[in-house]
Amino acid sequence: MAGVRALVRALVEDLDAARAHDPAARSRLEVALAYPGVHALWAHRAAHRLWRNPALRLPARLLSQLARATTGIEIHPGARLGRRLFIDHGMGVVIGETTVVGDDVMLYHGVTLGGRSLNRGKRHPTLGDRVTVGAGAKVLGPVWVGDDAQIGANAVVVKDVPAGAVAVGIPARIRVPNAPVTERSRTEDPSELIEYII
Ligand SMILES: CC(C)(COP(=O)(O)OP(=O)(O)OC[C@H]1O[C@@H](n2cnc3c(N)ncnc32)[C@H](O)[C@@H]1OP(=O)(O)O)[C@@H](O)C(=O)NCCC(=O)NCCS
């Protein structure tokens, strides 16, 4: 029973996150029915749960591909996503297997959180809390994007972005570095960012 309550709370949280980030969203019902970013996120939460059982990785991949076919958003089931993630519009978003995303993050359409190498280890970005990634931006490699950072539309990020900074352009330049990347943030275990919902 407690599990069901936690699940419902998580689903409502996702709906409210969409309403908080999109002035066009008028009700929870509208978001639940008409927001592909929310549908992709919900499918991912189920796919990720399957993925954590090594025997269920194929069904996890199939569920992820079904979500991609219906939403245009491809999230590898291994990716670890925090609470209240909102993917606006969604089409063309790709999130790689070893990506880690903190809480209250916002991604627009066309965002890639991708790899730069074919190594099997950690090869995708880690995003802190309250990060915004603009439409069409690519964040590539095992880079760290600090809390509250903003990545401009169409930027290509290949280096760490300090907390609170604005990164724009190709390759991305830091426009507002108000906090350095600290040793702690580089070495922090990304799994500690994530509070699993399901
Ligand atoms: C990067 C961003 C967050 C910066 O917002 P901001 O803090 O208000 O900063 P400003 O608009 O004052 O811009 C700061 C500087 O960066 C430049 N800049 C802003 N966005 C840029 C972008 N995407 N690419 C290149 N340069 C950009 C501005 O021209 C300005 O340059 P200047 O200092 O030489 O005048 C914002 O411009 C952005 O790209 N947001 C993404 C929005 C999005 O994807 N919307 C999709 C809706 S469907």
UniProtKB/TrEMBL annotation:
Gene3D superfamilies: Hexapeptide repeat proteins (2.160.10.10), serine acetyltransferase, domain 1 (1.10.3130.10). InterPro entries: Hexapep, Hexapep_transf_CS, LbH_SAT, Ser_AcTrfase_N_sf, Ser_O-AcTrfase, Serine_acetyltransferase, Trimer_LpxA-like_sf. Keywords: Acyltransferase, Amino-acid biosynthesis, Cysteine biosynthesis, Repeat, Transferase. It catalyses: L-serine + acetyl-CoA = O-acetyl-L-serine + CoA. The keyword Signal does not apply. One of its GO terms (cellular component) is cytoplasm. One of its GO terms (biological process) is cysteine biosynthetic process from serine. Belongs to the transferase hexapeptide repeat family. This is Serine acetyltransferase. It comes from Promicromonospora citrea.
